[in-house]
Predict the structure.
Amino acid sequence: MDYRERLRDIREDRDLTQAEIGRLLNKSQQGYSHIESGRAELKIDDLITLCRFYNLSADYVIGLVDKPVSFKRK
């Protein structure tokens, strides 16, 4: 699965809007929409923020593994 699809699925599973995630990442709804649609790349800092927010590992969020794994906090 492409990481953009995974980001959309995770967001939708939690009943969140693109605008809500955009605010989390200090982006507009359109700015976040561009990430999900492939018109913009996901920055590492944004990936870290999303992993912490969703409590999921980066491997799962970017599609390297198919089983959700919790984010391990230090």
About this structure: The mean pLDDT is 94. The radius of gyration is 11 Å. Residues 56 and 70 are 4 Å apart (CA to CA). The chain has one domain: 3-61.
